[in-house]
Amino acid sequence: MELKKDMILLNQDVTTRDQAIRLAGQLLVDGGCVDEGYIDSMIARNEDVSTYMGNFIAIPHGTDEGKKHIKKTGISVVQIPMGVDFSNDDDANEQLVTVVFGIAGLNNEHLQLLSQIALFCSDVSNVAKLADAQSADEIIDLLQEVGK
Amino acid sequence: MQADTSSKPKKKSSLKAKVQKFGTALSSMVMPNIAAIIAWGLVTAIFMEGGWAPNATIAKLTSPMLHYLIPILIGYTGGRMVYDERGALIGAIGTLGVIVGDLNIPEFLGAMIMGPLSAWCLKKFDQAFQSKVKSGFEMIYNNFSSGILGLILAILGMLIVTPVVEWGSGLMSSAVDAIMKVHLLPLTAIIIEPAKVLFLNNAIGNGILVPLGIEQAAKVGKSVLFLLEANPGPGLGILLAFCFFGKGDAKGSAPGAAIIHFFGGIHEIYFPYILMKPILIVAAILGGMSGTFTFQLFNAGLKAAASPGSIIAVLAMTAKDSYLGIIAGVLVSAAVSFLVASFILKRDKSTDSGDLAAKQKQMEQMKAESKGKEMPSTDEVRTSINSYANVNKIIFACDAGMGSSAMGASLLRDKVKKAGIDNISVTNTAVSRLKDEAGLLVVTQEELAERALEKTPSAVHVSVDNFLSSPKYDEIVANLKALSQVTDTPASEIGESKKVAASGDQLAKIDFSSIKEVNFIRHDQHQGSATMATSIFQDKMAKAGKKTPVKAVRINELDDENDHLVIATKAAGKNLAVRYSNIQIVVVKDILQDKLLDELVKKLN
């Protein structure tokens, strides 16, 4: 699967992680990947076990149960230049996130793209490029480099 | 924690232990699928000809359920025990081969062979090839390897496993036949009960006892042979014993099972209880023997085959003069097997009976043993190479197996491959699907570490708080590498490859004593990276115990005072120099991970 331009939202300003997750989830809804119920499942999953991955990225996705809301595989991207804190109240450290990847995975179709994202984002300066990107195309290009 | 598999005392694998392990394995293939067996049994009892409400249309369900659904489910479950979802799928494919091999007998036993065997084959295949798959081709590899191998296994199952199973049940039947010929009918229980537990009941019942019984009944109007396999007494006794003296799950589910068995005639439901504790077969045999003996004593018999073997069907088929004998025989066999089984269960204090509660207890013990070796905090994991000695498989576990673990697995697979280690597979799964096995290294998020440990007490455990750039990955790779004795290269290259900007003199010019605030600049296209740089620097400062605040600001928001230290890239530095004259500026190549940043932290307050 490939990342689509209309699944990318740039330059968002949010104050809570739930807002960030809802943005990523709404992209998935608008893209016809999931129904509304999935967003709540994403929030629930993040409360259960954080989807903060380190290196300023988070990959909110639904719970096992939430899989029933998925219509097709999709990945959305929300860029939050000012950052949003993904930590829980009892976490000692701030978990700042600048790029959120919303994920709806069916039949492991998303794994290839996810693995590209992982390889790319394991270098924090690459995440900085994503966080600074000025257009959706730039983000798509950046992530595609990895496959090559 | 690092549970060192090699340091645990190896259990003596006595014959008893082996039989126990075998039985437990068989039972755990059947137990999760009991519902399907019940569904089949109820359809049989209610809608089959001679049932409570015969209905030919609905009764069409029985054969496909018995011949296809249940064996495939068993094969699926058996495959999953060996190799997770991939194993489950290929187990089901392989099982279909055995089924088609002989459509006349329900291939439960064949499924129990084919499911795990297929999964094992795929596992070996993956161990050989999975690490060679190029990133991006995982899905193609996964689907086609399972598909092609599954097809081959299904054919082999049809041609090889089916005849083996047939031969086995043929052997059983002829043994029963031989015993009957010498008129020692009660002794047939020695063969029949174990054969039943291995799900060969239909083969023996319909294959030999029923035909002979019909012959006898035609001559004298009744036959005791119909009862040898259909007598629900022995199974009832065992299930009742579980009701009173069983443990945990087995105890809780036994009463329902007893009702379904005795009134529904679905004998299959008690087989897993015996498999869980194979010694209980003694109870079944003695129960069957005493029952048959009682039937003979009263010269009791059935008019025709009682199918299914419920007390209702048995009584419906009882010859007019035999009610007393039949009821007595069933009760005697139930009583005998109950007493023997109770004795066994009561005496049995061992914890490895495979039931849930015992497992949990075992787990608690293991946990108690490992106390003091608390889950390591992120940075202080003391990984002994020794504990890696057996590792041949790394599994990333997360909550749903959808995202985080897949990412982590991709990264580590990449690192492992780059390090030239090719005999270790890296996969991902949900924590709930983890299972304990030797040679396993489990990587989880810290929140899930506890659950992962419960699931896999004998694995090496590593927990990370950052799936993307955890130093643990390099640690793991380094440890694995040390073992495979590949020439060593520095484990961690990240950060170290970045050369220190030759600018010690840059720092010398800074007046650190006057600095009250450190700033990163948001300018032009650098919004997100400034946020990130600020956070990273704050983190470094906090770790070093430094108090100077760190803020990200817009380029036009600064006060032009020398108490600001601005960290910027070369381009931004020039821009700043034009606008401001008093602020202090440090130019770095990379605002996120420059060596100079660490130097700065040291000098700041």
Automatic annotation (TrEMBL), chain A:
Q: Where is the PTS EIIA type-2 domain?
A: 1-146
For this record, an example GO cellular component is: plasma membrane
* Record bears the keyword Membrane: no
Which terms under GO biological process does the entry name?
A: phosphoenolpyruvate-dependent sugar phosphotransferase system
Q: What is this protein called?
A: Mannitol-specific phosphotransferase enzyme IIA component
UniProt-listed PANTHER family: MANNITOL PERMEASE IIC COMPONENT (PTHR30181), PTS SYSTEM MANNITOL-SPECIFIC EIICBA COMPONENT (PTHR30181:SF2)
Summarize the protein's role. Answer: The phosphoenolpyruvate-dependent sugar phosphotransferase system (sugar PTS), a major carbohydrate active transport system, catalyzes the phosphorylation of incoming sugar substrates concomitantly with their translocation across the cell membrane. The enzyme II CmtAB PTS system is involved in D-mannitol transport.
Answer yes or no on keyword Methyltransferase. no
Gene Ontology MF: a single term: kinase activity
Q: Which UniProt keywords apply?
A: Kinase, Phosphoprotein, Phosphotransferase system, Sugar transport, Transferase, Transport
What species is this protein from? Lactobacillus corticis
List, alphabetically, the PROSITE patterns matched: PTS_EIIA_TYPE_2 (PS51094), PTS_EIIA_TYPE_2_HIS (PS00372)
Concerning Pfam families, the annotation shows: PTS_EIIA_2 (PF00359)
TrEMBL record, chain B:
What PROSITE patterns has UniProt attached to this entry? PTS_EIIB_TYPE_2 (PS51099), PTS_EIIC_TYPE_2 (PS51104)
Annotated GO MF terms: protein-N(PI)-phosphohistidine-mannitol phosphotransferase system transmembrane transporter activity; protein-phosphocysteine-sugar phosphotransferase activity
SUPFAM superfamilies named in the record: PTS system IIB component-like
* CDD domains, per the entry: PTS_IIB_mannitol (cd05567)
Q: Enzyme class, one word?
A: transferase
Entry keyword Transmembrane: yes
What highest taxon heads this organism's lineage?
Answer: Bacteria
Where does this polypeptide localize? Cell membrane
List GO BP terms, alphabetically: phosphoenolpyruvate-dependent sugar phosphotransferase system
Q: Known EC number(s)?
A: 2.7.1.197
Q: Show the catalytic activity.
A: D-mannitol(out) + N(pros)-phospho-L-histidyl-[protein] = D-mannitol 1-phosphate(in) + L-histidyl-[protein]
Q: Which UniProt keywords apply?
A: Cell membrane, Membrane, Phosphoprotein, Phosphotransferase system, Sugar transport, Transferase, Transmembrane, Transmembrane helix, Transport
Alphabetical list of PANTHER family matching this protein: MANNITOL PERMEASE IIC COMPONENT, PTS SYSTEM MANNITOL-SPECIFIC EIICBA COMPONENT
The name under which this protein is listed is: PTS system mannitol-specific EIICB component
Q: Which organism is it from?
A: Lactobacillus corticis
Q: What is the lineage of its organism?
A: Bacteria, Bacillati, Bacillota, Bacilli, Lactobacillales
**Name of encoding gene:** mtlA_1
